[in-house]
Write a structure and sequence with these properties.
Blueprint (H helix, E strand, L loop, with lengths): L6 H31 L4 H4 L2 H27 L11 H53 L1
Main location: membrane
Keywords: Membrane, Transmembrane, Transmembrane helix
Pfam family, one: RTA1
């Protein structure tokens, strides 16, 4: 959730919300009038009417929402979830170091397991040779 640094910025955002709601209401009213008249009347048979009362309010809503909210308030070095803050950079660096240490420890453990496995196989082979030698001495 974005924290606004001043009531003025929050007020601007509220104005955007109010305008968008008004445009959507205008579109809904147009749709109600259009469908209440039927399909053989002026509104459904002329192409400019839906462009003016249906598409343009929605285009304006999308434009206002995109321009006024996401770019102006959410991004930037002072945003709470920004990657630019020193605190966030330090947290990311700590997390990366922890991950790298865990990865190195895992690699070290797998290497130790491989060495242990090799030693076990070598010991088993040595015991087999000793056992064969003992059998040949007896015979």
């Amino acid at each position: 959730m974005t924290e606004y640094r001043s009531p003025r910025q929050a007020r601007k955002l509220l104005h955007v919300v109010y305008v968008v709601l008004g445009l959507i209401s205008l579109r809904i009213i147009f749709r109600l009038i259009e469908f209440s008249q039927g399909f053989d009347t002026y509104l459904p048979t002329h192409e400019w009417v839906p462009y003016v009362f249906d598409a343009s309010p929605m285009l304006r809503c999308a434009d206002m929402s995109q321009r006024r909210t996401s770019w102006a308030y959410i991004d930037g070095p002072e945003a709470p979830n920004s990657d630019f803050t020193e605190e966030r950079k330090a947290d990311k660096l700590k997390k990366k170091e922890k991950k790298d240490a865990k990865k190195a420890e895992k690699m070290e453990m797998s290497e130790l397991k491989k060495i242990n496995k090799r030693n076990t196989k070598a010991n088993q082979a040595a015991h087999k040779r000793e056992a064969k030698g003992a059998v040949t001495m007896i015979v």
